[in-house]
Design goal:
The structure is a homodimer. By secondary structure, chain A is mainly α. Chain A folds into two domains: 12-64, Homeodomain-like (Arc Repressor Mutant, subunit A); 71-193, Orthogonal Bundle (Tetracycline Repressor, domain 2). Chain A is 67% helix and 0% strand. In chain A, helix 1 (12-29) crosses helix 2, helix 2 crosses helix 3 (47-54) and helix 8 packs across helix 9. The longest helix of chain A has 23 residues, at 117-139. Chain A is globular and about 50 Å long. The N and C termini of chain A lie far apart (49 Å). The interface between A and B is large, with 47 and 47 residues.
């Protein structure tokens, strides 16, 4: 059930107590406001033990929400390269994850987020702090536009995953990955960097 | 709980037996292959009684899956008018439904479809036979392209609903409806009628 942290020394009950405290803290206070110190206090352990078990707040968060993958490891391959094709690379990376064994954990996470407000909150924090913040900082677009652009891109990606892997609507469910990349990549690109008439007062910097 | 059929004569147990048989038939055989005659036989009633209670196979299907709205009533307002803005009208209609009391039933349906394979099948049949078939027949594009175009548009709409109304990712969740229409409408339009380079061998008829 837990094979991501590499090492798991000490008492499994302690580890589980930390994860329980972390889930509550991240869901109630959000990722940024939840501190390792407060999580350690709630779990009745020393903060050094939390660092020892999980390494960083990012990694504790991924473990607490059973994240299928670590965006920090995957996103550099998406962000590096021609910025005009970042949408395609993002869709290609997504399909790679969901077509892999990690996709099963991803479907479980999505199911849980749709049915449980508490998991929905964790997923929201995950998307904003682990995925969108990284992508959007890299793009360097107008900071005022970034949050809406990010959530529009997230909606497109989430719908793709929902229809292809959960509802399994054909022919999208069986379409070759590169067909999906060609179809959905430009839509994601438009949300991230394209001009969005009627949404923002001016076209974004660098657009024609 | 059921206020859509206008009249509900006869025995409520009989009505419920028909709905149970209909759910099984539509989920197992699909909308097109499920016949009112077979559903009546499974429920132990005369087919005339099914027509009497529900009117048509479309309406029986909507009742069986607790559909929040009847697409046959809503879609004419989307399909009539400038075909180049059908994406915007589709998004505007969707937001109207999800912002209305019917949106609560819609969230319940989506939750159920994400967690239950059986409801996922019904939702798939609903999307294909009640929504996409009507939209795509109206557009009159290349029949070979219609199913994939329809499922791509459905994925975009589903993701919008998921992020705005279920996961409630900000600022998308609180964005004014017309901002969302301006942002997402063109993406839906592209899926339905735009050229999709790398997806189909040729641009669709009528595109530049």
């Amino acid at each position: 059930m837990r094979a991501r942290t590499g090492r798991r020394p000490g008492n499994p009950d302690t580890r589980e107590a930390i994860l329980r405290a972390a889930r509550t803290a991240f869901a109630e206070r959000g990722f940024d406001a939840a501190s390792i110190r407060a999580i350690a206090t709630a779990a009745g352990v020393d903060p050094a033990l939390v660092h020892h078990y999980f390494g960083s707040k990012d990694k504790l968060f991924l473990a607490a929400m059973n994240a299928p993958v670590d965006p920090a490891a995957l996103l550099p391959g998406v962000l590096d390269g021609d910025p005009d094709h970042i949408g395609e690379r993002l869709v290609r990376m997504f399909l790679g994850v969901w077509d892999s064994p990690a996709g099963v954990a991803g479907v479980a996470l999505l199911r849980s987020a749709v049915t449980t407000e508490w998991t929905a909150r964790l997923l929201r924090e995950f998307l904003v702090t682990q995925v969108l913040r990284r992508v959007l900082q890299h793009l360097g677009a107008d900071p005022a536009e970034l949050p809406l652009r990010g959530s529009l891109a997230a909606a497109q990606m989430a719908g793709l995953v929902l229809m292809r892997y959960v509802i399994k609507l054909e022919p999208l469910a069986s379409a070759p990955p590169e067909t999906v990349v060609a179809a959905v990549g430009p839509a994601v690109q438009r949300y991230l960097t394209g001009p969005l008439a009627g949404v923002f007062p001016h076209p974004p910097a660098g657009s024609p």
